[in-house]
Structure to design on (197 residues):
């Protein structure tokens, strides 16, 4: 027996509101890193680490082509391992979804969110939030909000912003670094980063 999905009037209006919201730049103080996105073919997941010398955010990228470490403020690749050891090289090979760090975070394990599960921070201490919605599933949209501005509250562009529409690749993960200074969105083909002072 096939059951037809019926949305309530409220749900239908909310879905229409999400579909009508155009993709816009993130508001101040956020700025997109490296202008666009960092291409990473076969991306499996991402995670955050802090640089041991100055505490700046680093983004670890795990893909079918190995591991990479990016400076979250510039998008620059600062370390690469094209052939990581097989044991624990991908998050699905560990109980805690971690991978071995590289470059300045060698000797640590980095939690990875993406294809195999896990998650990144969905909010910051000062009121920023991120939400992933799929009003036109299987396509995903990433919404950034500030101080209780989730999509059902306040106008688009004032309290919440549709900052990325993943219509070209499969969504993997979205969230903030533990410091709250970086927002990352990962798809199967790239990573988009925003940073703030």
């Amino acid at each position: 027996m096939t059951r037809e999905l019926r949305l309530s009037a409220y749900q239908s209006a909310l879905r229409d509101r999400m579909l009508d919201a155009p993709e816009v730049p993130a508001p101040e103080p956020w700025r997109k890193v490296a202008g666009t996105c960092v291409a990473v073919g076969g991306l499996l997941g991402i995670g955050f680490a802090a640089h041991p010398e100055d505490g700046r955010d680093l983004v670890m990228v795990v893909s079918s082509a190995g591991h990479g470490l990016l400076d979250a403020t510039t998008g620059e690749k600062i370390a690469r391992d094209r052939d990581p050891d097989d044991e624990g090289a991908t998050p699905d090979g560990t109980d805690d979804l971690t991978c071995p760090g590289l470059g300045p975070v060698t000797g640590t394990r980095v939690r990875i969110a993406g294809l195999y599960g896990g998650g990144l921070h969905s909010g910051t201490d000062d009121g920023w939030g991120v939400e992933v919605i799929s009003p036109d599933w299987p396509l995903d949209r990433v919404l950034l909000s500030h101080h209780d501005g989730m999509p059902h509250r306040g106008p688009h562009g004032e309290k919440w912003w549709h900052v990325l529409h993943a219509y070209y690749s499969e969504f993997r993960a979205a969230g903030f670094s533990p410091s709250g200074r970086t927002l990352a969105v990962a798809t199967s083909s790239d990573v988009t980063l925003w940073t703030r002072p």
